[in-house]
Amino acid sequence: MPPAALLALLFFYPLALIARQAFLDDSGVANFAEVIHVLHSRFFLNALVNTVSISVAATAGCLVVGLVLALILAFVPFPGSGFIAQLIDTFIALPTFLVTLAFTFLYGSAGMLNTGLMEAFSLPLPPVDFLYSAWGVVLAEVTVYTPFILRPLLAAFSLVDRGQIEAASVLGARPFRIVRQVILPAAIPALIAGGSLCLLLTVNEFGIVLFIGAKGVITLPLLIYGKAIQESAYQVACIIAVVNIALSLGLFSLYRIAAGRLGS
Amino acid sequence: MSAVAFTGTSVMDVDAAKVRGAGSNVHFDKVSVAYGAHVVLHPLSLDIAPGEILAMIGPSGSGKTTALRAVAGFVRPASGRIRIGATDVTDLPPYERGLGMVVQNYALFPHMRVEDNVAFGLRAQGADKALVTERVKDALGTVGMSAYARRYPRELSGGQQQRVAIARALAVRPRVLLLDEPLSALDAQIRRNMVEEIARLHRSLPGLTILYVTHDQTEALTLADKIAIMRDGRVCSHGPTTELYRRPPNRFTAEFLGRANLLPVTIVEGVGSKGFATARHGDKMLTGAGRDEKTGAKSLLCIRPQHLSLTADSEHTNRIVGTLREVHWQGELTHLMLDVDGTPVRISATRLPMALPEPGATVPLFFTPADTSLVPEDAGV
Ligand SMILES: Nc1ncnc2c1ncn2[C@@H]1O[C@H](COP(=O)(O)OP(=O)(O)O)[C@@H](O)[C@H]1O
Ligand SMILES: [Mg+2]
To answer: What's the gap in Å between A181 CA and the centre of ligand 1?
Structure first.
């Protein structure tokens, strides 16, 4: 099967090399001492906690913002709502770090918000500095990845029979109950699919974290970069990479299962 | 179940209404609806009495659904007010109007079991558990779906889903039940059964006011106490069902409500003391039930297909002559298509002479003056 062989060569061979680097020492002998050492190290655990918590927070943010936006766009049509949906969609096409750059112009220490506030209240120092923290990363990721939730949600909402919503309304249900009991149940597969895709993308996010450059906010991809490129500690980098790959593949299978249910 | 006939008001009707909670009347007060510059409902004034079934019928696009959705609260009138009972509901959201609604495609909640679908409205209105259980049982029993309480909608046939939709609407004890083409998605056999079931349902809930929108005149004739016929966003006639059928006030009503043969005639002698006028069609003098037709006026003589006969008898004092064009045998009915001086005429008969004339033959047709009605040529058109 040449196509399968080509695929294996192109994708799985490099992954296998990484795994090999991670578990074998220079003489080609299995050496788990280094693996255990890295997995117990402070820098690794710190990065793992950062990665997971930023990813979970960003995904939660995306779910909330995406849900609210999708509900408005789908059920409270206003002039231009279709255009806005498309505009948000084009976010998917943009490089993620560009949004971060725009954020720096807006909320950075020399950004519009800070200079404006400093002028208005004659402050000596920029008052807003949330951008250079884990929260800045979360905010940028929410902005960038919300369309990934919005898109499947809008697709799911377009399939909800307007007659059901009207029936619920005549029966005495107020809008909040209709969202909870009629609309959301139809959107659960879309929420799971979009949410797991967001988790996957934010776990692996590199550009945004690097661009924000918040002190002490090191995630797994950033750590791999640092160990491999800056410290030339290849085995350490590969061990962390294996963890990162395992995490990604787990999230990816979750996404596939949910997307499969969405398609059925 | 009470033994009260579903038309007319009797003492028992009133008693049952008291027990069940009396239905409300619905009042359209010069209600108009427009989409942009497109007026789809011209100022409409109409009253549906408590416990009455009003069928609103008319061709597709005539504004029936729009009128019903204005009552439900999904369409904002451009002008006019809508009252339900003593309440002006024009500015109330749908969830505060206390109605029930059933639409063509059922609109059941697909992820809820039948019982939860039926319980939805009660829970939304904050009913306590015991009441929900009791009412759900009651409503499902009323539509004969008790055995299906644990099923999901997708596990039911179309007819069963529509029964559940009706139960869901009834469970909240609505003041008014709105039905928009409720049977149009069902096939003919099931539709006939469902019409009878809705009639039975209304006999058991005589206080329930029903607005029944349909394009099917059979459903309307079977169920309705009164009928409103819509045309191009206007009510073109409104009245008690049998009266509208027997004495259509205009051509559109005569043709839309049951098929009518309409012979163009000229009034020779106006309505006499017995309510009959003499009219001329070609060289034939005919007698027809009239209103206030003036001598010399042009009119249409409405004769229903089942009232024309190929054989004479003492009652059949009217006689015309036609040319037989086609014969359609349909089992219980046979339809004969004829041509009477250029006017197409249809006869529907259960019994015909053994030897039918061949197409092309000239045949005499007989009918009784009491079965006819003179329809003004241009009123309401
Ligand atoms: N949302 C809408 N926007 C614009 N026109 C509409 C809308 N809904 C209905 N109409 C128009 O209003 C007219 C009456 O429609 P409707 O009340 O649905 O008719 P019916 O139920 O008698 O078939 C039609 O001409 C239809 O095209
Ligand atoms: Mg309609």
So the answer is: 29
For B260-376, CATH gives: 2.40.50.100
Beta-carbon contacts of residue A11 (< 8 Å; ≥ 6 apart):
none
Domain ranges of chain B: 2-246, 260-376
What superfamily in CATH does domain A31-263 come from?
A: MetI-like (1.10.3720.10)
| Chain B interface disruption, residue of A75, A171, A178, A183, most B CBs within 10 A | A171
Give helix then strand counts, H and E, for chain B.
9, 19
B124 → closest Cβ in A164, A166, A172 = A172
Task: Give the number of other CB atoms < 10 A from CB of residue B377.
Answer: 15
Q: Is residue B101 scored above 90 in pLDDT? A: yes
pLDDT tens string A51-108: 999 999 999 999 999 999 999 988 887 888 778 878 877 777 777 778 888 888 888 8
- Report yes or no: B209 and B26 within 8 Å, Cβ to Cβ: yes
Judge contact between A187 and A157, C-beta under 8 A. Answer: yes
Write out chain A residues lying below 8 Å of B105, CB-based.
161, 163
- If we measure between CA atoms, which residue out of A55, A62, A98, A48 comes closest to residue A202? A55
The bound ligand whose nearest atom lies closest to the alpha carbon of B228 is 1
List of chain B residues whose C-beta atoms are within 8 Å of the C-beta of residue A168:
109, 120, 124
Q: Residue A171 and residue B120: Cβ atoms within 8 Å?
A: yes
How is residue B190 written in tokens? 């099931």
Q: So what's the ipTM on this one?
A: 0.82
pTM (two decimals): 0.82
More confidently predicted of B349 and B156 = B156
**Candidates 3.40.50.300, 3.40.309.10, 3.40.50.720, 3.40.50.1820; correct CATH number of B2-246?**
3.40.50.300
A137: Cβ–Cβ under 8 A, 6 or more apart, which residues? A54, A58, A208, A209, A212, A214, A217
Q: Average pLDDT over chain A, rounded to whole?
A: 86
